[in-house]
Design a protein that fits this description.
Layout (H helix, E strand, L loop, with lengths): L15 H9 L5 H19 L8 H19 L2 H30 L3 H4 L11 H17 L3 H24 L6 H13 L9 H26 L11 H23 L5 H8 L1 H7 L1 H9 L8 H37 L18
């Protein structure tokens, strides 16, 4: 049995699958939908064949990503589309180094010092999330592409589930000022590249080594009488992690910009929000002060919301600015070039 003809017609004559593919087409600009929509839907229907009533998750994600890329092309901001894999790579390796550090300095420390009931050999359930992100790094090195993204999605879901699960079973967990930036970076890892370079695949083991090396001086300080034993000791470290991550990505972005590649600068802009969330606790205490050595929950929520809104506004402003610049360039070019082929007309020709 053949699929219905994807040509335009009454919506009631279309199959449920075709109607759902057409809804996904809304991710594309309107003009692109009119010009190419029938071809795209027909191709997907031919590839799927009869039977299914819903697009596969792969097809849905493929259409949404392609639509977003086409919209960014219209804004002259294709560098932003190319920045997602770069930002994902930086986010994952930051999480790996961060996870190793917290495992060694907090989770494996003596829980009697902090008065917590241990969770097996660890202080809190947070160890499960940190081990999960180390597993994501291993997957990104050995099985890059779809499997790495599946592992990143699993690590993200596990991190999100920590607060409700900890409350349900009555076990300690890391505080929200640790989990929220972790979740933000986890969201970024969902865009891990399909075909990473050899350098990209070698970064997770290097991140493990970096996190281990950084923990050494803290262990020495603990032995010297300055214990670093709980998550409440980590706000300054979190702010340093966010700042270091942003600085490194910005340096890479500036280097790429010298080669006329703005994807690195877009990646730095994408990671500005997670970097800010790493310092949300410090920001809260600087603006609203603290009570009992920690900021009040409402003050922390306000600071987190401010960071999220600021990051979104900066990204929107950058895209809008790039779109305005792109329109201006096209308007200057249109009178002197053919809009179809891009060639300059012969101004010496006479009618």
């Amino acid at each position: 049995m053949n699929q219905p003809d994807p040509s335009p017609g009454p919506a009631e004559t279309r199959s449920p699958l075709e109607r759902r593919y057409r809804r996904l087409l809304r991710a594309y600009p309107r003009r692109y939908q009119v010009e190419r929509g029938e071809e795209i839907v027909g191709t997907y229907l031919d590839l799927v064949g009869p039977g299914p009533r819903w697009p596969s998750p792969h097809d849905a994600l493929d259409l949404l990503c392609a639509g977003l890329r086409e919209r960014l092309r219209g804004y002259g901001a294709l560098g932003l589309a190319d920045a997602f894999p770069l930002a994902a790579t930086a986010a994952l390796n930051t999480l790996i180094a961060f996870a190793v550090f917290l495992l060694l300095q907090v989770e494996l420390d003596d829980p009697r010092i902090t008065g917590l009931d241990p969770v097996g050999p660890f202080q809190t359930l947070g160890a499960v999330a940190w081990l999960a992100w180390l597993l994501v790094g291993l997957t990104a090195t050995t099985l890059p592409g779809p499997w790495a993204r599946y592992a990143a999605a699993a690590g993200l879901l596990l991190t999100i589930a920590l607060p409700p699960v900890a409350a349900l079973i009555g076990q300690p967990r890391p505080p929200l000022f640790v989990l929220i930036p972790t979740i933000a970076l986890g969201l970024a890892t969902l865009a891990l590249p399909t075909h990473p370079s050899r350098v990209g695949r070698s970064l997770p083991p290097l991140a493990v080594g970096f996190g281990t090396a950084v923990s050494v001086p803290f262990s020495a300080a603990a032995n010297g009488g300055d214990p670093f034993t709980s998550y409440r000791s980590t706000p300054e470290i979190l702010a340093m992690v966010g700042g270091l991550m942003f600085a490194l990505v910005l340096i890479v972005g500036l280097g790429r910009a010298l080669r006329a590649d703005d994807s690195g600068l877009w990646a730095a802009l994408l990671l500005a929000t997670p970097a800010g969330l790493f310092g949300a606790n410090q920001l809260t205490q600087a603006v609203w002060g603290s009570r009992g050595g920690a900021p009040t929950p409402m003050a922390f929520i306000a600071a987190t919301a401010a960071v999220l809104l600021t990051g979104a506004a900066l990204l929107a402003a950058a895209v809008a600015g790039q779109a305005a610049r792109h329109r201006a360039v096209r308007q200057r070019a249109l009178p002197s070039t053919c809009p179809t082929c891009g060639h300059r007309p012969d101004t010496t020709a006479r009618t």
